[in-house]
Amino acid sequence: MTQFFRTPWIMVSMAVMLSACGKGQQTTTPPAADATATASPAVAIVNGTSISRADYDIYVKSLLQGKPQTELTPEQKAQVLDEMITMQLVSAQAVKDGLEKDPDVAARLEVLRMRILAEAESQKFLKGKEPTDAELHAEYDSAIAAMDKTEYHARHILVDSKEKAEALIKKIKGGAKFEDVAKAESSDNSKTSGGDLGWFTLARMVKPFSDAVKGLKKGEMTQEPVQTQFGWHIIKLEDTRDVSPPPFEQVKAQVSNGVVQKKLQAYVEDLKKNAKIEKKM
User: Fold this and answer.
1) Residue ranges covered by each domain of the chain
2) 241: which strand partners?
3) What is the DSSP string of 114-183?
4) Considering the entire predicted model, what is its pTM?
5) CATH tag for 148-242 (out of 2.60.40.10, 3.30.930.10, 3.10.50.40, 3.40.30.10)
6) Which of 45, 186, 212, 270 has a CA positioned 20 to 30 A from the CA of residue 100?
7) What three-state secondary structure class fits 28?
8) Which SS3 state, helix, strand or coil, does residue 206 take?
9) Spatial separation of the C-alpha atoms in residues 142 and 200, rounded to whole Å
């Protein structure tokens, strides 16, 4: 069996879960009267309730995450069907036990319903709105203009108090090697490599840290401790280098995703502008 089929049956497609729970109320309905069965042939009938081919296909699609269904072996197809039969049995029993009326269950089902409908509406809105070459190149140029064009190589020592950081700065100024002090005193995982953080752009670091790094020259160390939400830092800049932007073709897929997301976000913002929204918390 593949790793895919180690997924517990309870971790199922949201659409199938909702469909199964709804059908659980119809356990006495003959197969011919089942609305789903009319629209799509059944792959199984459990206590009079059909599991449709459409539901089966949706479940398989969610498990394969976009891979072709032809990748399933007969054994795997049988396992998927067995899992769906189990879901139908258990969800029908949940309905009999009145769990649909449980406030927590009802709220979770409603959230799943909203999410599925929101995803469907998003897909409907984006249909036919594939990014044009002009849009892709404009997005790429904008991203390149905003990107950090310099990478920094730095070391740091992280401690839990300003007083300790000040004492270590004094120790380093007195002749102790930065790397040795980092190995002995830093609480960061980088201590094993003498506080070496490797190469990074400023955007990757929290603002107080990146501001301090930007103000250093090669070989310099911060003269005062730098505070972030992680503690107190002593930072030493080892080197800098220029960054070459990636070629357009190399990042075209990411750029396309960015354009699509912006279109969708603009659509959502327009819906918000025309909606009456009252926040109660």
Assistant:
1) 3-113, 133-144+251-273, 148-242
2) 151
3) HHHHHHHHHHHHHTT-PPPHHHHHHHHHHHHHHS--EEEEEEEEEES-HHHHHHHHHHHHTT--HHHHHH
4) 0.62
5) 3.10.50.40
6) 45
7) coil
8) coil
9) 21
Measured distance CA(261)–CA(37) in Å, rounded: 36
Bridge-partner residues for 232, per DSSP? 159, 227
User: Residue 187 phi/psi, 5° resolution?
Assistant: -100, 0
* Contact in structure between 137 and 248 (CB atoms under 8 Å): yes
Q: Which residue has tokens 């401790």?
A: 225
- List Cβ neighbours of 79 (8 Å cut-off, separation of 6 or more): 1, 5
Hey, how many other C-beta atoms are within 10 angstroms of the C-beta on 220?
Answer: 12
Residue 61's SS3 state is helix
pLDDT tens column, 92-140: 999 999 999 999 999 999 999 999 999 999 999 999 999 999 999 999 9
Per DSSP, 89 falls in state H
Instruction: Work out the widest C-alpha separation in the chain, in whole angstroms.
Output: 88
